């Protein structure tokens, strides 16, 4: 299939029709610009190599002749495009992870099946649910505080939901111990905790991101892909005695991060934030206005950019469990990367890939913004000096 664009970017090359009346996929290419009027189908019930949300997101870029074909044909066409840009080593790794996840789901018996699909009335506190249903910036701000720029705090989960999820996590860990099953940990920094997607909660967390987090991030984090979140990494981390104690200074592998304390009884464990940075400036110093510490409260959420540098202080007593949802964006730039044949791999955000080629992130990176302001200040000062010199020369000549 051709992914090269030309002057007629939204017109597909036509091929011969197959037996089912569809156009041969090999002769088609994606649109460069999305069809915003097209309503994508859902792919949650299909067995796919990638997140169903990615297929729904990518469907808007299909050529017009593909929009009305059978859903299975659209899924195959998009899958072929995605796999084309996935190196063999990554394909094998993705396949092994898929088999690993299927083995868990086939053998693990959930304790609370009601957790595996979103039930808004029992999951969320009424104030959060009302704000999401109203779906306005005013309604969102009415339930939030913004104690530091770009850090939003709000109540989200009901206590009963937190208790059920904690109970499910304990049940899963008990099963892992009894079966001596080796599980993957959430990331390279946490030695304890579990990936919730791996034991069946992926669909629920997809719905959480799509229906309840994306509306917020569309308003508050649009400049980093917040309006196009379509994949996630969902996990829990555990701190306390015989578990992780603290978490070092880092940035997340996400565009937007949701961090919710589930419980239990604990002291310490405060989050500390130190400013938003692009890759170039990630190790630069912090300024006084960027320093913020946050104390966890069960059921309460913190929403922030993935590039907001942070860490967690030691949990000095008790047991703290937090739900983390790293929300990622495919974004419109993915299709542009496909058209220019740049490297991409599964669930890797194009926003983060594009940062290799961009130099100015002054819209959200604190250090880029300071450098831009300094350049502007220098330019204005130089212009004033030139103006004064011209005026003096004019007066001298007069």
Automatic annotation (TrEMBL):
Cell cycle listed as a keyword: no
InterPro entries listed in its UniProt record: Oxoglu/Fe-dep_dioxygenase_dom, Pro_4_hyd_alph
Cofactor(s) this protein cannot do without: L-ascorbate
Keyword Metal-binding set for record: yes
Gene Ontology molecular function: dioxygenase activity; iron ion binding; L-ascorbic acid binding; oxidoreductase activity, acting on paired donors, with incorporation or reduction of molecular oxygen
Residues of the Fe2OG dioxygenase domain: 230-329
A Pfam entry, by short name: OGFOD2-like
Domain of life: Eukaryota
Keyword vocabulary terms for this entry: Dioxygenase, Iron, Metal-binding, Oxidoreductase, Vitamin C
Protein name: PKHD-type hydroxylase At1g22950 family
Organism, as annotated: Cajanus cajan
Phylogenetic lineage: Eukaryota, Viridiplantae, Streptophyta, Embryophyta, Tracheophyta
